[in-house]
Structures are given as C-alpha cells and as structure tokens.
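User:
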Amino acid sequence: MFFVIEANGIIAYYSSDQKGTMGAKDIFKITFNSTNKRKESGPKLALLKGVISDEKTKLPLEANIELVDNEKHEVIAKFKSNSVSGKYLISLPSGKNYGINVITTGYLFQSENVTLPDSAVYQEITKNVSLKKLEIGTKIVLNNIFFDYDKSTIKAESKSELERLTKLLTENPDLKIEISGHTDNVGSSSYNQKLSESRAKTVVDFLISQGINQDRLVYKGYGLDQPIANNDSEEGRQLNRRTEFKIVGKS
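Assistant: Predicted structure:
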C-alpha cells in the first residue's frame, strides 16, 4: 500500500500489513539495482512542489490537487496541499505534458501546465498557486486550453480543462462569465484581434454544447492589446497567447 519512489529513481518505500513485522502497517524500503547506463543518463524524474495560498491574504490553504495527463485525458493523481503550510510535493516521470488543477470551496479553480521533455534529467520545479475567491471581477488564465497553430481549433489536450470549466459553471448556476482570447504581437493588430475573438467564441460554443445557458456567457477578443509578459522572448509570447475566464456577474 502507498508505494512511493524517490526522485533519484533508486530508492522506494511502501507500507504493508504483512504478518511477522513490528506494527499494523510497517514501512519497507526498496533499493533498485543501478547500472552504469542508468548513472550516465540520470533519472528522468522531476520533483514538482509549491505552496497553495489565498491571493489576497497570502495565507496558506488546504486544497484538492489533480494531476492530469493532458494527452490521455486521465487524472493520474489526486492529493491535498498541507492544511497548515499549504505545501504540496509530488514526483513525476518526464516526457509528458501535465495539467495541474487546484480547487477548494469558495475559490475559482486554478490550472497550471508543465511540460517535461523526455530528455530531461532530474529537476525540481516550483509552482506556487494563489487562489482567487468567487467574486465579480475575478479572472484567471485557463492554462490548459490549447489551439492549433494560427487557428481557433481546440486541441484534444484541452478536454480536461474544458470539463473543469463546465463543472464549475454547472455547480454555480448564478455565475455569468466572459471568455477572452489574447495573442502575442506577431502579425498585424487586425489579424490578432480576429484570431483572439474566434478562439474565445470556440470556447463559448463548447460550453453551450454542454448545456450552459448562452445568456450566462460572453466572448471577447483583445488581440495583442493586453499582454501580461514581454513579447521580446518566446517565453513571454507564449504567456501572452492565452485564454482567460472572468466573472462578470451573478444572478
């Protein structure tokens, strides 16, 4: 029960209630045989850690965390942040694109995205998450909605994120929201305006197809006018290419 492997890929632990041991459930340690090849290539694992907190008060929060394999649309782990410190910690195999969904009562869910190249050796990644309360004017970036290049076609990897958004709106039928599209500064202003609006509309159309009343939904494209990062680097441009969700009213 409760098998866990260290980030070095060599040591693991598990608990067991097998007979003839010291207590009801004892902890056993496993040391895997390490080869020269393994030592040269290094373990392809990453340690993901961070703190969950309230955006305004900065106080730590206990929250439910889901780890999703975006390509397979599968939840591969569910756990909670520490109720006192707000900290969480998990080890992940490389070579995958992960979605991290954080949610607790009275707050908007927050999604993060992590891609770990298959070539990556052991690394530690810190993802601190600040949750925002369900209030008018609150907005979040939907980090796990992806589109085909230069198109408004939603990629299959977006399925889990769209399902979370649908669930939030279903469980909070009084919410009225705006879905907005944003781009980087590559290309003309008019082109980016059209692309961002088309992408936002695609998300709204999906929500309507899932039974969400269209009177609760508004879509807008802001093109390149509202950057959240510098467009001088690919990393900054990637942050600016985003879809946002905003609470605009409550009925």
